[in-house]
Write a structure and sequence with these properties.
single chain, mainly alpha
């Protein structure tokens, strides 16, 4: 009964997160179109490359975020309020220090990089500097928000995210409206308005957390025991954060060095599409992550292994649902969405979605290792592999390969990293090897093989238009559903899915 309640809670949280995601995706796609039109290709590219530089230094924050969430989930599973209170206050103290450290490095090393290495048109360099400083402030706000965000996720208050999404997306629409009507430099105004939104959301998160969770009203102090433990744990996560930075953002910088801001605009478009679609997957995994950590903490390894398998498999299937129709109809979708998209946008989107199909399997395995707390060797090896993306991408562009080559490199490295994560999770995180291979690797491989040929064949009977989009989309969805039900899930899962559908129909 307890396991059924836990599964039901994950399902409920996922539904709430989907509401948040759908609203966010619609607003994101709309606002990115308007922003591209208002700013122009060059300014849009400048905004994305400056954002990439900021992210380069935000790894200082990133490597602590996972530590926060892990320690909160473990202490909540133990039902120890005093421990949770000490963890929160220590976490808040650490993030204030991190905030100051981030600002220092960004305004010194980061600023030097902008002045000396980035390829930015002279006429827009001053505006780019304003944007850089504004983004530093915005990142500091985001760093301070992390402990509150981590507490809300660990408590599984996903309804809060659903309500918050309405507020946040309304504010994003207001930003776009103001961007259109203000008479000042559009690029600077856009960055400044983002600060205001970030500050408002920080206040919203803090007020909610302080009110709902007693431990979040703690003062800015630290517990030496937890400080040492969290910093030690985070120190090894640092390698992973730096590697992930180079893996995902370093390529944007390399693109700028070889091809300028126009290619950064194309990558920005591709990233928007990839992030919007991937948010479907993120919602499932965010809802499940606290349960993965908690079940490992209390020693419920059978439930834990089955949960990892289900989340990995369902994440992949959902990604496949979305990816195939978009890949087939990418030219028409771009035309419908943007009118005229920057060169390489289509190919970068397609390769990015292929990358996402592989990447969605990483999340549960990563969470399993975080649950153990034994991450030193894991982070060292994974980080080294991920960092290979930077030199390999640089060499590919240097010898004359197209910009698409950087994502090909990223895909190959993602496959290698997935194998490494699986090996570590099976050895150190109590993951059932046979169960994972049987219930994840084999089914997703077979489903993919049987799901691809027919929709692409059907597309040959149409031109790039709305008819092709509707027909291929319908064929893809129906075909994948049938294949998943026949060979992509276990007998027990099939019965559960069908029963759930029948109950919904009866209602």
């Amino acid at each position: 009964m307890a396991k059924q309640l836990q599964t039901k809670k994950i399902a409920q949280n996922t539904i709430l997160l989907y509401f948040r995601m759908i609203l966010g995706m619609v607003v994101s796609l709309y606002t990115s179109r308007v922003v591209l039109q208002v700013l122009g290709v060059d300014d849009f590219g400048i905004y994305n490359i400056i954002g990439g530089v900021i992210v380069m230094f935000s790894f200082i924050n990133t490597f602590l975020t996972s530590a926060c969430q892990r320690y909160f989930s473990v202490s909540i599973a133990k039902d120890c309020i005093e421990e949770t209170k000490n963890i929160f206050s220590t976490s808040l103290f650490i993030h204030v220090l991190v905030l100051l450290l981030f600002a220092f490095f960004a305004e010194t090393v980061g600023l030097y990089f902008v002045y000396n290495d980035l390829v930015i048109p002279d006429a827009r360099f001053t505006a780019a500097l304003y944007v850089f400083h504004i983004m530093v402030v915005e990142s500091c706000i985001s760093i301070f928000k992390v402990p509150y965000n981590a507490a809300i996720i660990a408590e599984e208050k996903m309804d809060f995210y659903a309500y918050t999404s309405i507020i946040e997306n309304v504010l994003r629409l207001v930003v776009v409206y103001l961007l259109v009507i203000v008479p000042f430099d559009k690029l600077v105004v856009y960055a400044f308005l983002h600060i205001l939104v970030s500050f408002i959301m920080l206040l919203w998160y803090k007020i909610y957390a302080d009110k709902r969770f007693s431990y979040c009203s703690s003062s800015l102090k630290y517990d030496k025991t937890y400080l040492k433990s969290m910093v030690s744990f985070s120190g090894w996560n640092l390698f992973g954060s730096v590697a992930d930075l180079g893996y995902k953002q370093g390529t944007n910088i390399i693109l700028n060095l070889f091809h300028g801001v126009t290619l950064n605009a194309a990558m920005g478009i591709a990233t928007t599409v990839r992030s919007s679609i991937y948010s479907f997957i993120t919602n499932i995994q965010v809802a499940a992550n606290p349960q993965i950590i908690k079940s490992y903490t209390v020693g419920e390894y059978n439930y834990y292994s089955n949960l990892i398998c289900r989340i990995s498999k369902y994440s992949y299937y959902l990604m496949l649902f979305l990816a195939i129709p978009v890949i087939i109809n990418i030219q028409y979708i771009l035309q419908l969405w943007l009118g005229e998209a920057p060169e390489y946008s289509a190919s970068l989107i397609v390769l990015g979605l292929i990358f996402c199909l592989i990447d969605c399997l990483h999340g549960p395995l990563w969470t399993s290792m975080q649950a153990t707390g034994k991450i030193r060797n894991y982070q060292l090896l994974v980080s080294i592999i991920l960092l290979l993306n930077i030199p390999f991408s640089y060499v590919a562009l240097k010898i004359g390969y197209s910009p698409n080559s950087i994502l090909v490199v990223q895909i190959l490295i993602s496959i290698i990293t997935l194998i490494v994560r699986f090996v570590f999770s099976s050895k150190y995180a109590e993951l059932n090897v046979g169960l994972y291979i049987k219930n994840v690797i084999l089914p997703v491989t077979v489903v993919t093989i049987f799901s691809i040929p027919l929709p692409f064949y059907v597309a040959t009977f149409f031109n790039d238009d709305w008819q092709q989009l509707l027909v291929t989309g319908a064929v893809s969805v129906i075909l994948i559903i049938v294949i998943v039900l026949l060979i992509g899930v276990t007998k027990h899962e099939r019965i559960s899915i069908l029963n759930m559908v029948l109950m919904r129909i009866k209602r």
